Amino acid sequence: MKGKTPAFRAVILAGGSGERFWPLSTPERPKQFLRVFGGESLIRQALARLDGLVAPADAFVVTTKNLVAATRKELPEVPKGNIVGEPMRRDTGAAVALGVGMASGAGDPVVGFFSSDQMVAKPKEFRKVVKRAVAIARRRNAIVTIGIKPGYPATCFGYISPKTRAFVEKPDAEKARKYVRAGYLWNAGMFIARASVFRGAFAAHAPELECLAKSGGDAGPLAPAALARLYAALPKISFDYAVMEKAKNVEVVPGDFGWDDVGSFAAFDKYFPHDRRGNVREGPCNVVEAEGNICVARSARISLLGVKNLVVVTTPDSVLVADKSRVAEMKKLFSR
Amino acid sequence: MKGKTPAFRAVILAGGSGERFWPLSTPERPKQFLRVFGGESLIRQALARLDGLVAPADAFVVTTKNLVAATRKELPEVPKGNIVGEPMRRDTGAAVALGVGMASGAGDPVVGFFSSDQMVAKPKEFRKVVKRAVAIARRRNAIVTIGIKPGYPATCFGYISPKTRAFVEKPDAEKARKYVRAGYLWNAGMFIARASVFRGAFAAHAPELECLAKSGGDAGPLAPAALARLYAALPKISFDYAVMEKAKNVEVVPGDFGWDDVGSFAAFDKYFPHDRRGNVREGPCNVVEAEGNICVARSARISLLGVKNLVVVTTPDSVLVADKSRVAEMKKLFSR
Hints:
2 copies of one chain form a homodimer. By secondary structure, the first copy, chain A, is α/β, with parallel strands linked by helices. Chain A folds into 2 domains: about 10-260, Alpha-Beta Complex (Spore Coat Polysaccharide Biosynthesis Protein SpsA, Chain A), CATH 3.90.550.10; about 265-335, no CATH class. Helices cover about 25% and strands about 25% of the residues of chain A. In chain A, strands 1, 2, 3, 4, 6, 7, 8, 9 and 10 form a 9-stranded mixed beta sheet that branches. A 4-stranded mixed beta sheet of chain A has the order 12-14-16-17, with no helix packed on it. A two-stranded antiparallel ribbon of chain A has the order 5-11. β17 of chain A pairs parallel with β15 of chain B.
């Protein structure tokens, strides 16, 4: 370590199979390319949100092999070499390890991991909190995570106990209420630490991922063939499970900046205005005596008559009609 | 009246606004052009059903002005002059009167009225019953109607009392059950009588329509401008209400030949095979944990997830998603 303040680099994790927002998203254009919120794609928003904290040259993206070209096109200001595709999906454990390897370098930079498909309503507040987390990561031998102040007892997120710093899995409804009462925070998948601290954590808790975390930097990037060979042997394991649930050197910085995961079409209910019957519409939708529907017309005009709580989406190739309460089960449409 | 057996001529009533099967049907291609049942359009089936009873030269069609060309194309064997378009919609009272005028001629033929958009499961039995009705109409100064043996206590059809020969309007559910128990028959809108008998009935009960019923035949058809002027002054009134509810010289011939009105998408449930969850499908439909839906994919592929009792129809221009119990209210989609 030198006396100079180490750089802050950001890695945007941008995998995604395009299933949960199908047919708006597809395997070739997964969720992070969605333009429904505020005009810009979610991945552009993820980068723009770090404006002032991270220069484009210090931004990295870990995505899947088939999405590298689309990602480079979407983020032309990021150096091409900073956008790398995983040869296959191995969950966030491998993605974080690869990102640590890519973002490593002289001066042991602080590396922060962020998702490509999240919403932040208050980006200024977000930047403040990230700054705080980066400052802690600079000073201490710790992985700093940003814990989100829960807006409601969600069952679709993991939680973090701010006292014990324990990471806990997605709870059922009852446990979720208990967690919220006890002051637990949502695990938003944001991790910030010096590259060396991440490497140490992999060495200690997930040695099978250590090699990836040590690639890049001075060692230079792995050749595609080597990367493919390495990935084929890796376990599918999340970073939470591989490292965060075991590490003792965890710091939690609470954040409250209108964060959301944009996990499914149900999120449209939160971000779009409703008509007086609770319908959310985009494009030509003729809605008659219908309530609580999400109606997205990207090609043919949609007419709804007397239906309730549906998600109806049209694209030139596909029409989705799903019960709103079932959108978490979108995968079932692709299981044949 | 001469000693020679008078001819039998058939008039197919083919109006229709295309609303009830929208978007499969449209104002330019209303229900009678639908090809979903058995491959042929409903209007072709209506004509074919009379095969052996009516020569194409003795078949007539009353349709709306804008549908004349499409109808002539659909029924090329019918003489062009036998297919006439009403200048505006004036309900079945005017349509029957115009049909009587068109089909009148030497020898006072028997004229039968049939709808263009009905289903008959047993056409052979249908022809037998029509023959019986025609024979009665030849002999007697009566309007013969074919009353359908009810399959269930329908509330969407009018009924005929076989004893009093009284025509009664569409009943509520309770009355419908009473009618069925009492042996009432469905009013299928089939009327058969000598042209002179129809003319006499108009003269007696609906003199405002008499002029139309006397056009055609020896008098020659009305010029389009004269027809338009005449129609503009006509009341919108059904033939049932204008004539049948008042006439005393009514004969009822019961029929049981698998008749149905094909009134709405709900009819698909009767005529198409179901999958094991009660869904009816045409075209590429991916149906996951969905029940009782009618799914017609004419352009984009439809995916249903977890939805129940919907009608989902796609065409290149439009997507309809309606609750199955609401399809009778399709008009509401066009009321703006």
